[in-house]
# Entry
Amino acid sequence: MNAPVITNVQQEKASGQARERLVVIGNGMAGCRAVEEILARDGDRYAITIFGAEPRVNYDRIMLSPVLAGDKSFEDIIINDQSWYDDNGIELVSGDAVIAIKREAREVVSASGRVTPYDRLLIATGSDPFIIPVPGHKLPGVITFRDLDDVDKMLTAAETGGNAVVIGGGLLGLEAAHGLSLRGMKVTVLHLMPTLMERQLDEAAGFLLRSELERRGQTIITQADTAEILGDSHVTGVKLKDGTEIEADLVVMAVGIKPSTGLAKLAELEVERGIVVDDNMVTSDPAIVAVGECVQHRGACYGLVAPLWEMCRALADFMTSTPSGYVGSVTATKLKVSGINLFSAGDFSGGADTEDIVMRDASRGVYKRVVVKGDRLIGAVLYGDTADGSWYFDLLKRQEDISDIREALIFGQAFASGGATLDPDSAVAALSQDAEICGCNGVTKGQVVACIDGGAGDLDSVRAGCKASASCGSCTGLVESLLSLSLGDDYDGERKVTPMCKCTSFTHEDVRRNILEKELKSIPQVMQELHWTTADGCASCRPALNYYLLCAWPTEHEEDPQSRFVNERMHANIQKDGTYSVVPRMWGGITTPNELRAIADAADKYEARLVKVTGGQRLDIFGIKKEDLPAIWADLNAAGMVSGHAYGKALRTVKTCVGSEWCRFGTQDSTGLGIKAEQMTWGSWMPHKFKIAVSGCPRNCAEASIKDLGIICVDSGYELSVGGNGGIHLRGTDFLCKVETEEQALEYMAAFIQLYREEARYLDRTAPWVERVGMDYIKGRIVEDEAGRKELQERFLFAQSVHQKDPWAERVAGAEGHLHKHIAEIRPFSVLEPA
Amino acid sequence: MMADARWIDIGPVEQLPALGARTLPVQGGQEIAIFRTATGSIHALANKCPHKAGPLSQGIVHDTSVTCPLHNWRISLLTGEALGEDKGCVPVIPVKIDAGRIYIERASALAGVV
# Structure
C-alpha cells in the first residue's frame, strides 16, 4: 500500500473558537457528495477530515465501465481533484483506511495508527463486492469490478487477449463483459437466473438484450451455477454444477454488492443488512451519521447512485440544523453499454390490480412496457428507444395522475402531450400523408387512403389493392383505423378473423407463417417480433407457440417445459384428486404375459387404486403420486415398455383387430400394419391428440371410421379415411384414397399426419380442421401431388428422428427431476429438511 | 438451517424454474405450492384450487397468475383470488427472499395444523 498522503492542516475559525470536527470515513461518491452538500449550506461550520482507503482523489465510480471500455480516461471521471480539497480546507487522508471507531472517546484509528478525534462522524464506506465462496475464488486472475485497481487488472489481462469469464449478468457484470469484449477478449457471461438483469428487466427485454450481446460475440449462459474456479497457480477455467467447463484466463466476479458494514459492526452500531439509519441518516449513535450504499433506511439498501444524492441532501440539511428528512428513493437503471439503449424504473412485476401496456416495434428492435396501477404509473421497461425514460421516471416519482393521457402513454411524451390525439383513430388521423403505414411493403398513409377511396372497403381489398398489412400483418390495426376514418359508418369492421388469444391480434395461421418466414425460434422471439401485448403470454398461447416452434424447427427448437400443459410436462394424466394415471404403450394393442406381469407388479407396488382397459386398447394404471412416477416408469421400462403418450397432444393409440392372421373374415394383416403405423408415429407431437385404427375388413371391429386416421383393409388393398371423431360431435371419417400396399399406406399416413401437424391450429382435432379446409384441399395435397406427398412424408420422418424418444426413460435417468420432488417438507415441531 | 421464530427457510431460489412451481407438504396441514414468475418473484398459495381443489402447482404460470390444470381457473398469485368471471379464493402464504433463499412465514404455513 502507498504511504498515507496527508494534505492540509486543520484550520481554526477566524474567531479562534474551534469548529465542530467532522470526520468522514470514505472518500467515495457518497462521502464527498455529502461534504459538498454541507459546504454549500454552511461552509464554516465544520473542520473536515476525509479518510479514503484508495490512494487517490474522489472519482465517479459508476463511470469505471466507460474507462474499461476505453470511452473515458481516469482524468475524465475525477469528480474532485486535489484543488477542491485545498480550496475548501479539507484534510484528505488517502491510502490509510480507518480500522476502528472508538465511540466513547469519539475518535477514529487508522491503519497507520493515526488517531483522529471527531464531534460528528460520517460513515460512507459504500459496499463490497460479493464473492461467491467457491473453491478457487482466491486464485490469481480472479477479480471483482469495484474500483480503479480492478479496472487496471482487467486492462492488463486484456493486453494478452484470451478468454474472460464474467460471473454475473447484472448491470455491473454486463458492463465488465462489454469492456473486456471491446478490449479484445473472448467473453463468456455466466448468470444464475434465466434472464439477464432480472431485477431491472422483464423476460422480453432480457431476451432482446441477450440477443444483441450474442450478436456482438459474447457467449451468454443463463441458469449457470458456478461450482468451482479451476487452476493451480493461476485461473484456467470455470466449472459449472452441471459439469460444463469454460476456459478462462481472467474471471470477473460481478454477482452483486453488499453494504460495507465491518467498521460499524466492530463499533457495535445497529447493523442489519446495512447500517441502520433514521430519516436524518443518523445511526444508533447520535454522534454518528451514515450515507450511501452502506446504509439501510426503512428496510431498504440501495446500490445505485441516484438515492445517494437524495440521502446526501437530507444529511446536509440535518447537519446544518434544517432537517428535511429522507423518505427513500424510487430508482431507475440505465445500462452503460454503447449502442444498447435500455432503461427500467419502478415496479414491473405485474399483479392482479396492475395493467401492462406493451408496445413492440420489431423492425426497430423496440420494446416498451409501462405498468399502470389505478391512475398512476408504477413501472417502466424500455429497450431500444429510451428517449422517454426520463419522462416516465418523472411521472412515476411524482405519482402523477395519468388517466387523461393513458391511451397514448405508451407512445411517449411527444405524443401523449399532444392533447387531442388520445384515441388511436385520431392518432392515425394526425399522421402525415407520407407517413409509412406498412413497413414490409413500404406503403404510405396516402397510398392506403387512395386505395380505400378507389373502392377497397375492407382489409382484404386493401391488402389486395396496395399490399398494406399483407405481409407480417402488424400494421393491421392502423389500416383498420384508416378504413374507419375514410369510410365512417360504412365500415363495419372486420373481426371475422379470430386472433390466437388476447395477447395478440395475429391469427394462428399468421403466427405460423411468420415463424417460418422470419425464422423465429423461441417463444420470447415470437412475442417480440409479432408485437405480443403481454410480457410472457398466457396459458393459451404459450403451449401453442411451443408446439408451433417445435414443429417448424425440430432440431433447433429448445423445449420449454413451463409452456406445456401439466399432462405433457408430467408425462402422465392428472386426475381430479391430483394423482396421475399411467398408460404404457402396447404396440397395436398387443401385449405379452411379461408385460402384463410388470403392469400387475407396478400396480401393486405403487398402490394403484384402479387398473382399467381403455377405449384405445391399452391398460391405464390410476392413482399414482407424482413422486412415484419416475419409479413406476423405471419398472415399466425394465419390462421393455415405453410411454403410451396417453397424456399428450400426440399419437395416442393405434387400435387394431386381429386381422387375417386369426380372423376368418380378415383380408390383410391389420395388426401388423397397426404396429408398423404406431412404431412410425409414436412420440410425435401434434396440434391435438391423434388416434389411428386399422380394421382387417369392412366389418370394422377397430372402429376406424371415427378415428383421426382410419384404415379399412379390403382384398385389393387399404382404404384410408380421415377426420373422424367419436367425441362430443360424432363425425365419421371422409374417404381419402385407396392404396395397394402397406408401404403406400404408411407413406400416405405419414404425409397426412405431417400436413395436419403443419397446418392445423393448435388444439384443433382433425375433424374441425378437415371441415375448415375441405377434403378437396387435402386430397390435392396428399393424393394428387405425389412430389408434395413425399416431401411431407420426408419432413415427418425427419421430425420423428428427433422427437421419437421415450420421455419416461429420460425422466428415469434424472431429467426434470424437480418436477417429481417436493421443494422441502415442513414437519411441525421437528427439524426442517430442505430437499 | 436457520431457526427463526417467524420464517422457515425452505431452500435456495434456484430450486424453482422461472415460470415454474414446486410443492411443500406440511405434515398434518395442507400442501403449499411455491411459484416463481418470469420476473423472479416468489409466491406461495395453498396447493388447492378454490374450484375443485386442483393442484395449482401443476398449472401454467403467466404474469402473476397461475392457470389451474383441471379446469383452467386463473388464480392470482398475489391475492389468491380467482380472476375473470370465476369467484373463489385460496390462502396466500407470505414468503420472502433473503440472500438467495426462500423463507415462508411459519404461522401461515402451519395454519390448520393440529
User: Anything to note?
Assistant: DSSP finds 26 helices and 41 strands in chain A. Chain A touches chain B through 50 residues (CB under 8 Å). The CA atoms of residues 436 and 443 of chain A lie 6 Å apart. Residues 142-255 of chain A form a domain with the FAD/NAD(P)-binding domain fold (CATH 3.50.50.60).
